[in-house]
Design goal:
Length: about 375
């Protein structure tokens, strides 16, 4: 019987994280299970920093953005950088030590809330003998075996409102206005917000775009007397035969590439090719912050409650998921992909289905997708 469960929020912050924590704690309360939250994600797990979670702590947090536990996207417990006696950096696997401590401290299960990289580490802890339940977390909506990840629709709401706001400036000045949105290597946010906001062109990573097609769409609108255009660009979009627009690279994170600037590139090229003034806005972290939307509050509560229920029932090494409209679960091994070596980081993301209804709808109503 499960008596003690640890909770981790790992990776980037996301609307709905606190609602997931609340769902876990409230479900645990009625089952007599003690829950403890490790602080700052895997960093807190490494350093054994935690707080006891109870309904007093989680009271009123369902709408609050971010995570009361804090998070961290720079700690890989399977490869911790340390200086050797020569001053050189070596990478040490601390996961065995952590797993033994968790067992000694009486943890029956870890609930790990995270995205692609965090869930790979969750899967790897199962190989260290730790019972794990995964919860998919990302505004990017790119975790496999899910219909929707919590936080996605709140991010889409923010991006859609941004489109509504820049439209008035585009109309007033006869400009091409570009909105760059998050999403990494998947175009879900761009596609959803673009359709909802009435964008004229949507550029996503799954379809390398031809700038000539983008210009053609702008000129078609101009010929019809529509002097402005709205373009939504996913941060991972790239031109046909071109490369991703990388803002910077870092060395202290498992995710070493920082995307950014795809919208600026499109604005510069559009202005060069059309002579129409073009401006780009990068929405950035606004998509991840602030209050959680009603749909994501419900979905997050469902995810959290089901995660604790799986732990109570002893159904370990699974990930909670919304699949075909129902809250269920799938093996972590399937989510993390076919990596066989602990700590491998190969991608297993869910990208936009180019034969799916959203893409078909966009094409039917005349949205240019750059191809």
């Amino acid at each position: 019987m499960v008596k003690k469960v640890g909770v981790i929020t790992a990776g980037g912050d996301c609307p709905g994280l606190n609602a997931v924590i609340r769902g876990i704690v409230k479900t645990a309360e009625y089952a007599g299970v003690e829950t403890y939250g490790f602080l700052e994600g895997y960093k807190g797990l490494l350093e054994n920093r935690y707080i006891k979670l109870d309904p007093k702590i989680t009271n009123g947090i369902i709408s609050k953005g971010g995570t009361i536990l804090g998070s961290n996207n720079k700690t890989n417990t399977f490869a911790i950088p340390v200086k050797n006696e020569n001053g050189e950096t070596e990478y040490v696997d601390k996961s065995v030590e952590i797993a033994e401590r968790l067992k000694k401290d009486g943890y029956d299960c870890l609930i790990i809330i995270g995205g692609d990289g965090s869930l790979k580490s969750a899967r790897d802890y199962t190989r260290r003998g730790i019972n794990v339940i995964g919860v998919p977390k990302t505004i990017d909506n790119d975790v496999p075996h899910t219909d929707t990840t919590f936080g996605f629709y709140t991010a889409v709401e923010v991006a859609t409102e941004a489109i509504d706001r820049i439209r008035t400036t585009a109309e007033s000045h006869g400009r091409v206005l570009i909105l760059e949105v998050m999403g990494r290597y998947a175009g879900w946010i761009a596609l959803a917000a673009g359709i909802a906001g009435g964008a004229d062109t949507i550029l996503i990573p799954e379809i390398p775009y031809d700038l000539n097609k983008v210009v053609e769409k702008i000129n078609q609108r101009k010929d019809r007397g529509q002097k402005y255009s709205i373009i939504v660009v996913a941060e991972g979009a790239k031109p046909l035969g071109g490369e991703l627009t990388v803002k910077s690279t870092v060395s202290d994170s498992p995710d070493k590439i920082r995307l950014g600037g795809a919208g600026d590139y499109v604005a510069k090229e559009v202005e060069r090719l059309t002579g129409i003034e073009a401006r780009s806005t990068m929405l950035g972290y606004l998509q991840r912050g602030g209050n959680t939307g009603p749909y994501d509050r419900i979905l997050s509560t469902e995810y959290g409650s089901m995660a604790m229920q799986l732990a109570i029932e002893g159904k370990f090494n699974e990930m909670v998921t919304l699949l075909n409209g129902k809250i269920t679960h799938v093996p972590l091994d399937e989510v993390a992909g076919k990596d066989t070596k602990i700590g491998e980081e190969s991608s297993n993301i869910k990208t936009v289905d180019l034969d799916g209804d959203w893409v078909k709808t966009a094409r039917r109503i005349g949205i240019c997708l750059g191809d």
